[in-house]
Amino acid sequence: MRLYKRKGVYYLTRQSTGGKQVRRSLKTHDKRIAEQRAAKLELTIHEAKLFGKEPPRSFKEMIVNYLEPKQSKRGFERLQYACRPLIEYFGDSDVTKINESHVEGYINWRSETVSDGTLRRELGALSAAFNHAIKKQKWRIENPCLKAEIPKEPKGRVRYLTRPEAKRLLQAAELPYLADFIELNLNTGCRKGELLNLKWENVDFSTRLIYLDQTKSGEWQTVPINEAARQVLVRRMQLRDQICPNSRWVFFHMVPALNSKVGDRVKNIRRSFKSACNRAGIENFRPHDLRHTFASWLVMEGVPLFEVSKLLRHASIQMTERYAHLAPDYLHDAVASLGFSAQFQHTTNSEQNQVSEKGLKVVKNGGRGWI
How confident is the model at residue 7 (pLDDT cuts 50, 70, 90)? Predict the structure, then answer.
């Protein structure tokens, strides 16, 4: 173990059982107190080795251990973002002493500023970090998230545009790539990242298919190209040939931007998209809602939910059922061909009497029912 001072506060570094350097704040400016706390920690670690007692474990250390192997994986930035408020709240707390009441305290603190959906993602990261420490690091601790009262999963958000609204949004998109992005999204239902990462090598005009290699499931998937989407892609290709023939991206910068050259991939449309929505007078609408619009229009056109599910590349039909209410006639259509009771309701009185008499006769003769 080694003591050192940083911004007036004493820290301790030690080597973990896995061979990694672990840093821990001793939360004091006094060297004598820092030495006492370091000695106490060293004694606790020796006791753990001798008697199998779990030594104090830093919350920050647990999060770092969890995030480290995920740095090169898809979604790391979002996961890192979810862990920031967790570190802010729990800091250097000893994870061996964190229980469900502490997790519920975090829920109460965080729910004042974020939605239940965001909170659930952060709690998911917290639970995963505990599970990683238990299974991979072999820490003898419990996952407090399992006993805590977690907010219920929110209902799937369905916000979609009417066709006049979509037209206004396209007209309000000042940047050429933004208008093309919106139109292509409305005709393919792709996710934002799937389109912004789309390369020309993955667009096949001969088969009218887009091949996606960076998807939510992590697997290769295909998306059909309708005529409207084909025209957008042809327009993008002609623009690419004029401005930056060597660019491999479907959505590229036409002029230099911050940290980007002409032909580089457009990485984010959030600000320009929001500005276009404001100009079009469209509120509470996000880029991902273009995908909801694609699905909603299909359902309102009478496309079966199963086919919509395939076009959205959902893992299960349950994910698509959020759009079922947009097709109010589909249940009527499903039962229209049955008409079982109608054949009796429309019989004449004489026919009903004959049927009744025959039925009674059968019953009198000991039969089992109608003939």
Answer: confident
Q: How does pLDDT run across 89-133, given as a tens digit for each residue? A: 999 899 989 999 999 999 999 998 988 888 999 999 999 999 999
Residues with Cβ within 8 Å of residue 24, at least 6 apart in sequence: 11, 12, 13, 14, 41, 58, 61, 92
- For the domain that residue 309 is a member of, what is the CATH number? 1.10.443.10
Domain assignment present for residue 141? The answer is yes
Is 353 contained in some domain? Answer: no
The span from the CA of 161 to the CA of 296, in Å, is 9
Cα–Cα nearest to 270, from 250, 256, 290, 300:
290
C-alpha span between 77 and 81 (Å, rounded): 6
| Alpha-carbon span 184 to 233, nearest angstrom | 8
Residue 290 forms part of a structural domain: yes
Residues 108 and 181 in one domain: no
> What is d(CA 92, CA 28) in angstroms, rounded to the nearest whole number?
13
Q: How many domains does the chain have?
A: 3
Structural domain harbouring 185: 163-326
